[in-house]
């Protein structure tokens, strides 16, 4: 009995049936009739007529009522002192969950119970006023996040020291460099004295050195001070190094909740499940030309691994191909590679028949981690066009040795060299 | 940090607020923030200006000059026997405070959507800080008004303050609550559908003409007895009349009027807070 109580009391956050519905499309004259209907239902004590719990999520298809479940029936518990990494693809509901827990918005149904004070860091520098000095902004920002004046005063030196802006503390922050601005803002947040800290990928700011400092500070917060941390990130490495627990969200539901390492593995699993991203069948390129099959063999791989691809084209008329190429571009739509597939065999084959198929392998892929898309360039007598966005794969971050964190992607250029070195 | 031993929860996040739970205790916990926001508004107003807070004088002075010229000289409207600039200045000073409170609080959700969308603090802090920072501006303008009183007394005009001047702090509270309450109601109603927001800007201007800013209540009663009730039941009218009566000794003061105004102000500010409280939880999704 006492054991049970002990266990109960260590829970810091408990979510029960937490759901959030968003409305798609614009709010305007079209939505008022629905609002009236909803209001009328509530007056009579009925449930919202537009929310049907249990309806399958149709995030990618158009539903009939324009409502989307961003979170659906979430049940989980977070123990005190845990550092929980929340992972999932874009739109999986991570940010919504953080917003609800930090009380920026409220759930549509369900509830979450919380023990202790929550401080959330959904964005650094919230409420910074450009005209005010660094000093004034520290106090204002601290107060916005719920610190009392005396508390900020006590920690002021630590904050300024952490941010490294002593010389500029009495200068308006509009004169700060963006790096200084972010450092000061993070420093305030890092010195919050709350039992629970909620952090959304704010670490994607500042230079590499400062990012490391932030990660270190967060690690300290959770391990040494025993505070609960919820951390959303796309960077599996920072999750792995900071968090002991992990929760994978997919389409607004908890897919996995357990240790951080297992969660990362579970996440890699859902990334690989996306078949339509690595295989395309009977894709009509034009009225005459059809991409019968275009596939790659993996959805995710590490740098310097190989990627096999297959491609077959069919046309209703004879289609002399003069040029055929794959191109790979990154998440910022920058072309990363161009794979030239011209050869005499291809020209001869297409001069004879209406179909052509080829198998190939991209060897030793030298790309930095990230999402990449594969497009196709075709130049023939029936078709002369570039097709973007056909297939997609992800290059994953390799684990570093000696527990080191990889540098952030922004500073790493585009290519991942294969290299070796020795210390003498 | 030791484990929290009791199994009671500190906070429960639920879909809706309780209707009458205005979270005033939480507002009190965040009082430092209120003060810092007021300071921010004030400091950022005069930063990089040469005259600084003196700019607060410019608007009432010019409005008074224009009113004196148009309504006083051109239209020849009565001012209860008071010097025209003094009469208008009294009206403008009060009206400005009320109108500023109303205008600024009515857009509080829209103006602060960025910050409200990122961090939680009792939302009521924001409108309260608006009302408080307008108070500084009001105080500066009151100073101008008092200087004018001294001047006109020195040149020997026949008027003077009386004991009803002691109601002044109460009048300020009334104006603040009325402006705040109406502003909160409007802000709560315009988060999703902004139609009402268009009404507010010129609605406030129209309301000014239905308040005894540029004419005394006595004249209105005399000339339009059939419609004077609109002006009489306007809760800002008793405030204005009491203000003038206290400081200048002229005007139609009545305890009934002030009582009516107090009652309606209480209802409006309570209603405003309830509506605001209802909307604040999810407005981020619709604003």
Concise description?
The complex is a heterodimer of chains A (424) and B (287). By secondary structure, chain A is an alpha/beta fold.
What's the end-to-end separation of chain B, in Å? Answer: 40 Å
CATH structural fold name of the largest domain in chain A:
Rossmann fold
Helix content of chain B: 55-70%
Number of domains of chain A: 2
SSE order of chain A, one letter for each helix or strand: HEHEEHEEHHHEHEHEEHHEEEEEEHEEE
User: Tally the helices of chain B: what do you get?
Assistant: 14
* CATH homologous superfamily caption of the largest domain in chain A: P-loop containing nucleotide triphosphate hydrolases
Major interchain interface with per-chain residue totals:
A-B, 55 and 40 residues
The helicity of chain A comes to 25-40%
The Cα radius of gyration of chain B reads 21 Å
Which sheet architecture does the biggest sheet of chain A show?
6 strands, mixed
The shape of chain A is: globular
Tally of DSSP β-strands of chain A: 18
> Radius of gyration of chain A, rounded?
26 Å
* Low-pLDDT ranges of chain B: 1-6
Fraction of residues in β-strands of chain B: under 5%
**Alpha-beta content class of chain B:** mainly alpha
Number of helix segments of chain A?
A: 11
The quaternary state of the protein chains shown equals heterodimer
Q: Strand pairing plus helix content of chain A: what structural class?
A: alpha/beta
């Amino acid at each position: 009995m006492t054991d049970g109580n002990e266990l109960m009391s260590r829970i810091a956050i408990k979510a029960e049936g937490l759901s959030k519905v968003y409305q798609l499309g614009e709010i305007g004259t079209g939505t008022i009739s629905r609002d009236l209907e909803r209001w009328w239902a509530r007056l009579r004590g009925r449930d919202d007529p537009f929310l049907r719990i249990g309806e399958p999520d149709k995030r990618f298809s158009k539903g009939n009522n324009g409502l989307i479940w961003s979170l659906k029936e979430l049940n989980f518990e977070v123990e005190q002192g845990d550092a929980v990494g929340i992972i999932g693809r874009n739109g999986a509901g991570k940010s919504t969950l953080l917003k609800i827990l930090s009380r920026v918005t409220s759930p549509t149904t369900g509830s979450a119970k919380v023990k202790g004070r929550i401080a959330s860091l959904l964005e650094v520098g919230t409420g910074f006023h450009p005209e005010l000095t660094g000093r004034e902004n520290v106090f204002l920002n601290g107060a916005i996040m719920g610190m009392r004046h005396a508390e900020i005063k006590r920690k002021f030196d630590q904050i300024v020291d952490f941010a490294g802006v002593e010389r500029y503390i009495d200068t308006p922050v509009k004169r700060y460099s963006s790096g200084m601005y972010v450092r000061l803002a993070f420093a305030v947040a890092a010195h919050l004295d709350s039992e629970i800290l909620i952090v959304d990928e704010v670490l994607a700011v500042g230079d590499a050195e400062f990012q490391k400092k932030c990660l270190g500070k967060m690690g300290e917060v959770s391990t040494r001070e025993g505070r609960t941390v919820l951390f959303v990130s796309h960077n599996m490495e920072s999750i792995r190094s900071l968090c002991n627990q992990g929760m994978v969200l997919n389409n607004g539901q908890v897919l996995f909740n357990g240790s951080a390492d297992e969660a990362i593995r579970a996440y890699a699993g859902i990334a690989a499940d996306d078949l339509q991203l690595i295989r395309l069948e009977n894709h009509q390129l034009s009225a005459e030309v059809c991409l019968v099959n275009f596939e790659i063999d993996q959805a995710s791989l590490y740098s310097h691994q190989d990627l096999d691809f297959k491609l077959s084209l069919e046309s209703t008329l004879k289609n002399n191909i003069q040029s055929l190429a794959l191109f790979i571009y990154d998440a910022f739509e920058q072309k990363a590679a161009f794979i030239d597939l011209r050869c005499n065999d291809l020209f001869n084959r297409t001069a004879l028949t209406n179909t052509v198929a080829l198998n190939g392998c991209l060897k030793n892929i030298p790309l930095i981690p990230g999402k990449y898309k594969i497009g196709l360039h075709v130049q023939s007598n029936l078709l002369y066009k570039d097709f973007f966005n056909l297939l997609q794969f992800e290059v994953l971050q390799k684990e570093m040795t000696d527990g080191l964190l990889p540098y952030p992607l922004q500073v790493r250029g585009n290519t991942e060299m294969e290299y070796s070195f020795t210390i003498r | 940090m030791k484990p929290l031993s009791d199994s009671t929860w500190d906070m429960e996040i639920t879909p809706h607020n309780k209707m009458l739970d205005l979270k005033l205790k939480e507002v009190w916990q965040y009082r430092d923030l209120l003060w810092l926001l007021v300071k921010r508004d004030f400091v950022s107003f005069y930063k990089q200006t040469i005259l600084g807070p003196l700019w607060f004088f410019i608007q009432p002075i010019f409005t008074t000059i224009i009113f004196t010229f148009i309504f006083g000289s051109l239209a020849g409207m009565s001012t209860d026997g008071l010097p025209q600039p003094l009469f208008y200045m009294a009206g403008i000073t009060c009206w400005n405070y009320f109108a500023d409170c109303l205008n600024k609080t009515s857009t509080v959700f829209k103006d602060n959507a960025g910050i409200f969308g990122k961090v939680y603090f009792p939302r009521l802090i924001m409108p309260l800080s608006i009302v408080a920072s307008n108070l500084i501006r009001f105080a500066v303008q009151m100073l101008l008004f008092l200087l004018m009183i001294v001047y006109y007394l020195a040149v020997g005009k026949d008027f003077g303050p009386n004991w009803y001047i002691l109601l002044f702090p109460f009048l300020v509270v009334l104006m603040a609550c009325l402006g705040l309450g109406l502003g909160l109601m409007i802000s709560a109603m315009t988060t999703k559908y902004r139609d009402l927001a268009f009404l507010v800007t010129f609605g406030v201007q129209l309301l000014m003409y239905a308040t005894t800013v540029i004419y005394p209540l006595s004249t209105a009663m005399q000339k339009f007895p059939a419609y004077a009730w609109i002006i009489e039941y306007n809760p800002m009218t008793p405030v204005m009349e009491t203000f003038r009566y206290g400081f200048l000794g002229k005007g139609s003061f009545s305890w009934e009027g002030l009582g009516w105004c107090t009652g309606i102000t209480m209802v409006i500010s309570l209603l405003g807070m309830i509506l605001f409280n209802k909307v604040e939880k999810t407005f981020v999704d619709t604003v």
